[in-house]
Each structure stands twice: as structure tokens, then as C-alpha cells.
Design a protein that fits this description.
4-stranded mixed sheet; 11-stranded mixed sheet; 11 helices; alpha/beta; 352 residues; 24% strand; 15 strands
Length: 352
């Protein structure tokens, strides 16, 4: 098991590094024909911090950068409502039309039945993509204030050429201060298009995984639930950990997507040379799939920080992920009691 810092010695249970955007949701309509949109905040790494705070009642913070205008302040207000500490937001000055620095937005259709989810991002030249090494006081975060867990991932590192350098700086200082470090292999083709694609992303990930304790996503693993092969998963995860000796845990969701409205969901991890598997949810009715992978990571992290074993932590992660599928927006609207009650239920919707 991972060595956890004591809660009372740390200001935060988790700190995430990543972008926070505004999500414009057309509800049941299409982006190009909608006349009304509901606004949420979201972003891969941020979603983990939000779920830790809102669902699991832990102390989390987001390290990000925002352009200091009305849109940035709206994002800040949404972050405040989530309970995530906003004190580590790095503010950038901007002119009246955001020529050089702006805040990211994206439009997201949830999809339904045969119609898949569809996204349209508008996130070029954002404040967070312009972060450079030395901009953030990581020694203050990890050494002076102290945190138990640090999380970042491939969405943040795909934003710009300088983003991986910022992540590397943070991960090194976190490890120096005995903070657990996790990295999500999230890949977005839109972020890497024109910048080397998957090969360039893999090169960045290979450098950063040298400094991680936990990875979400396993290279070479078929993550379809119905195709799960324990021997192949063990081989893939074991090979990955052997390449990056600091890695202690490799975890992944497993998912069968029958349509935009029906998924089956599970989770698995490799740790201490053993494979652990969560209970799986069959034929879930899906309202909104965005953020369900981040919800899995949050539940798994919560379990490990709370002293749960690997299997229980996986069940917490998969349950939080499943509940996230039932609500609109990037994040879970579940309560801790709902997650716990379903995670320990061995009957009904859960099956081995």
C-alpha cells in the first residue's frame, strides 16, 4: 500500500494541476440549433479535485491559471461553489478582447441512443496553457502548506509545449516532499493534432511517469469490460511498472459502450504484483458520460487516502463513476452515503 501522510499535518488531501473551462450544455438539443445553454465548470484534472471535495468531503485545491475578466471570475465562482480551494489560481491580466490570454470554453452534447456525445472546444491560447516553470510556488504547496496527494494528467500536458515542463516541476517537488503523485494518461487528439499526435503524447507521458506513484490508464490494455483478460492485463500493467520503477499502482476503468445511453462499467488495478477487480455495473442508463473517468479516479484516491484496501477503493471509484453517468455536467452530484451504500451492496445492480 501507499504511504499516506497524516491528515492533520497537511493543508490539503489533494491538489490538482489542470485547466478549468466553462462547459456550455445544450441539454437535449444539438449545439448548432440550440438557443439556450446551461453552464458548468469542468476539466479533467479539476474534476478529480471537485469530486474529492463535493462528494467525498475531503480538502482539495486546484492549481490553474485564468484570465482576469468576467469569464474568469465566473469560473472562480463555480469553483468556489464546489468547495475546491481556489487560493492557488494564478491570475493573468488581459485586455478587453482577450487578444493574448483567454479562458477556455467548450460545448458538449450528451448524445442519446445512436447519437454519440459530441464536443466542440474553444481553448487555444488560454491562460493555463501559458504557464511556465517558476510561475507556481510548488515548494509553498508541498513543503510549507503540505498536501497528501498530487494529481495531474495528459489533458493538462497536452495544452502547450510548456505544460509538460510545469507538470514535471510539480511532480518532482511533490515527490521530494513525500506527496503521492498520480498521473492520468488521458489523450485528446484535438490537443495533439499538429503537435506530433499520439507519438508525441507518449513521449511526454514516458518522461512524466518516471515521477508518478499511480497511473490511471494502462498501455496496451483492451479496456472493454466484456473483453477483460486478467492475464493480459497483468502482463500490460507489469510491463508498464517495470519500465517506470517509481510506479506502484496502475488502475483503469473498463467500459462497454452499447450506445450513448447504455454502458457497462467496471474497474481494475495492478498493485503489489496482484490484480484487483471491482464489482461491475451492467447496462447502466446514461444521461451524461463526461467526467466519469475522473470520478473513478477520485473515488479510488479517496479510498486509498482513507485507508481502504485496493478492492474497496476500486468499488468506490467505479460506483462514483457510475453515479456520475446519471447526472448532467462534468461532475458527480452524488453524496458520500450514496456512494458507500451502493459500493458495499453485493446484490441487485452490482455483480462480480
Amino acid at each position: 500500500m501507499l504511504k499516506n501522510k497524516k491528515t492533520d499535518s497537511c493543508r490539503w488531501d489533494l491538489v490538482s494541476l489542470g485547466e478549468v473551462m466553462l462547459r456550455f450544455d445544450p441539454g437535449d438539443e444539438r449545439i448548432e440549433t440550440a438557443r439556450n445553454f446551461r453552464v458548468w465548470e469542468g476539466g479533467g484534472e479539476y474534476n478529480v479535485a471537485r469530486s474529492l471535495s463535493k462528494v467525498f468531503r475531503m480538502r482539495s485545491a486546484i492549481v490553474t491559471a485564468l484570465a482576469d475578466n468576467k469569464i474568469g471570475r465566473l469560473i472562480e465562482d463555480l469553483v468556489t461553489q464546489s468547495g475546491v480551494d481556489r487560493s492557488e489560481i494564478f491570475w493573468r491580466e488581459t485586455d478587453g478582447i482577450s487578444r493574448e490570454t483567454r479562458n477556455g470554453i467548450y460545448f458538449m452534447e450528451r448524445g442519446f441512443g445512436l447519437r454519440p456525445p459530441t464536443a466542440c472546444s474553444d481553448r487555444g491560447n488560454t491562460a493555463v496553457s501559458q504557464l511556465k516553470t517558476g510561475d507556481i510556488d510548488w515548494h509553498g504547496i508541498f513543503e510549507k502548506k503540505q498536501t497528501r496527494w498530487f494529481h495531474t494528467g495528459g489533458i493538462f500536458t497536452g495544452l502547450s509545449d510548456s505544460a509538460p515542463e510545469v507538470a514535471l516541476e510539480a511532480m518532482k517537488i511533490a515527490r521530494e516532499n513525500e506527496t503521492i503523485v498520480s498521473y492520468d494518461l488521458n489523450y485528446r487528439d484535438s490537443l495533439w493534432k499538429g503537435r506530433g499526435g499520439r507519438e508525441a503524447s507518449d513521449t511526454v507521458n514516458a518522461e512524466l511517469l518516471k515521477h508518478a506513484d499511480v497511473v490511471f490508464g494502462v498501455e496496451g490494455f483492451d479496456s472493454r469490460l466484456s473483453h477483460f483478460d486478467e492475464a493480459k492485463f497483468r502482463e500490460s500493467a507489469s510491463n508498464m511498472i517495470s519500465r517506470f520503477p517509481n510506479l506502484k499502482i496502475a488502475a483503469s476503468t473498463m467500459r462497454d459502450v452499447k450506445s450513448a445511453s447504455s454502458h457497462s462499467l467496471g474497474g481494475v488495478c495492478f498493485a503489489d504484483d496482484k490484480v484487483y477487480k471491482a464489482n461491475s455495473f451492467k447496462d447502466l442508463n446514461v444521461l451524461d458520460r463526461v467526467g466519469s473517468g475522473d470520478a473513478f479516479a477520485a473515488g479510488f484516491i479517496y479510498g486509498l487516502l482513507s485507508g481502504s484496501d485496493y478492492e474497496e477503493s476500486l468499488n468506490l471509484g467505479v460506483t462514483n463513476s457510475a453515479l456520475t453517468l446519471t447526472t448532467p455536467g462534468d461532475n458527480s452530484c452524488a453524496t458520500l452515503s450514496e456512494v458507500r451504500n451502493i459500493a458495499v451492496d453485493q446484490k441487485g445492480t452490482l455483480s462480480r
